[in-house]
Amino acid sequence: MKVIVSHDVDHLTFWEHSKDLIIPKFFIRNAIECLHRHIQFSETLKRSGVIFSNRWHRLPELMGFDIEKKIPSTFFFGVNNGCNLAYSLRNAETWIRYAIEKGFDVGVHGIGYQNFEEIQKEFTTFKSISGKSQFGIRMHYLRQNDETINHLSSTGYLFDSTVRSTSNTILPYKAGEMWEFPLHIMDGDIIEFGKRYGNKSLKEAQALTTALIDKIFEKQTEYLTILFHDRYFDDSFSIWRDWYIWVVEYLKSSEFEFIGYPQAVKELNNRNSTLSR
Ligand SMILES: [Zn+2]
Q1: Is the pTM of this model over 0.90?
Q2: Distance 34 CA to ligand 1 centre (A)
Q3: What is the end-to-end Cα distance of the chain in Å, rounded?
Q4: How far away, in angstroms, is 107 Cα from ligand 1 center?
């Protein structure tokens, strides 16, 4: 089994959310976590620092870590606004170029999931900004309907990793010419386990994760997919950050190889062409 890591970039600045409900929800969530003693008051204060710093991403920090650990991760960026993704195309462009310069794979964090024209527009916008001809996508909040995956495939995406893994959906599969990689492990599913605020300690999160990895390993998938949101790679979200550092170390110590989505697509395509000869 090989491991594929990706990062959804949901925010770039704090004040890009001045017109939606993300800011009040953020403070409510922090207050609940503090009252439940999930985090210390000092951590709540650290989180509030964003009001002044206005930086709501941890892209350089996370990229630094991934480079150090030789993790060929993919960063998914939004090139459209909607459903609480509110950064400007100009800011997206700056960070897409930064990620490419650092040697990372980049893809689309999709907003339009219901409308074929909107899906095509995001594809074209990303293509011109990134200068890439082949790239993948993950929908923001994993949103999809019955047509989404077909639309992504007809648009020309190389791969998608929006479909949430279930006991029947674990292995990668082809949707037209596109590869679909079901998403196995997401940071929030573990740490916020069934709620909208953090409620698992690092130890509990580790136990849940190792159980999940064992379950997926048993199904003999060649690729395990993990999503970690960049903005949690910070002191003010210490359980989240420590969980990510731990899961990378844990998988490395179990001698699993880390691979990027594009490389996995190549492997799968090579195998398919060998089989069809
Ligand atoms: Zn998202």
Answers
A1: yes
A2: 24
A3: 25
A4: 12
82: β partners: 85
CA of 275 to the centre of ligand 1 (A): 36
Q: Which residues of 180-190 are buried (b: 16+ CB within 10 A; e: fewer)?
A: bbbbbbbbebb
128 alpha carbon – ligand 1 mean position (Å):
22
Ligand 1 center–CA 252 separation, angstroms: 26
Q: How much distance in Å is there from the Cα of 75 to the middle of ligand 1?
A: 11
The per-residue pLDDT string of the chain (277 residues; one tens digit each, 9 = 90 and over) reads: 999 999 999 999 999 999 999 999 999 999 999 999 999 999 999 999 999 999 999 999 999 999 999 999 999 999 999 999 999 999 999 999 999 999 999 999 999 999 999 999 999 999 999 999 999 999 999 999 999 999 999 999 999 999 999 988 999 999 999 999 999 999 999 999 999 999 999 999 999 999 999 999 999 999 999 999 999 999 999 999 999 999 999 999 999 999 999 999 999 999 877 766 6
Read off φ and ψ for residue 19, nearest 5 degrees.
-105, 5
Cα angle value 38/41/42 (rounded, 5°)? 115
Find the 274 Cα to ligand 1 centroid distance in Å.
36
Which CATH architecture does the domain made up of 2-12+57-276 adopt? Alpha-Beta Barrel (3.20)
Cα 78 to middle of ligand 1, angstroms: 8
Domain chopping of the chain, boundaries:
2-12+57-276
270 strand-pairing partners: none
Distance of CA 122 from the midpoint of ligand 1 (Å): 15
